[in-house]
């Protein structure tokens, strides 16, 4: 695969500037920096987060669902494969990587983000969560983290 041109923080398009900040936040493998980067782009308590295995949620509560992924995979990073922006939308195809229970795990995903300029209005994630679910099931040392961080694996609610 050829290297993808990263989104530019100097772009005239607010959607591309948003994706540039997204890429920086996810590149660190540091939960606090990543979540702070996301919090800075939210459109307040109205921002909606939708992703597999978690109920849809708004604002800080929605952001905490992203934080639960870091509770399970503390060194989580995202590498952008492809991206596109237009008219208040940003799409990013990426691979999440990290270590769950001391062993590597990777998941390919797509985020569709609805933006109001640069603030995030809605983020919906599309991925197959089966690799993470299977990794959790075969790594019993991870199970206490599920309880401690109140991670409940649920089917995605219908709209």
TrEMBL record:
Q: Which InterPro entries match?
A: NTF2-like_dom_sf (IPR032710), SnoaL-like (IPR037401)
Boundaries of each SnoaL-like domain copy?
A: 20-118
User: Which branch of life, at top level?
Assistant: Bacteria
What name does the UniProt record give this protein?
SnoaL-like protein
Question: Organism, per UniProt?
Answer: Herbihabitans rhizosphaerae
């Amino acid at each position: 695969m050829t290297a993808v041109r990263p989104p530019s923080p100097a772009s005239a398009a607010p959607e591309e500037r948003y994706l540039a900040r997204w890429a920086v936040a996810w590149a660190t493998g540091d939960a606090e920096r990543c979540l702070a980067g996301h919090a800075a782009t939210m459109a307040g308590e109205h921002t909606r987060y939708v992703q597999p295995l978690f109920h849809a949620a708004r604002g800080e509560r929605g952001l905490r669902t992203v934080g639960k992924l870091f509770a399970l995979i503390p060194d989580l990073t995202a590498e952008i494969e492809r991206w596109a922006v237009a008219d208040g939308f940003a799409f990013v195809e990426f691979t999440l990587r990290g270590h769950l229970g001391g062993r590597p795990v990777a998941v390919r995903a797509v985020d569709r983000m609805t933006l109001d300029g640069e603030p995030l209005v809605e983020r919906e994630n599309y991925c197959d969560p089966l690799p993470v679910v299977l990794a959790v099931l075969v790594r019993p040392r991870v199970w206490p983290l599920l309880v401690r961080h109140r991670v409940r694996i649920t089917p995605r609610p219908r709209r």
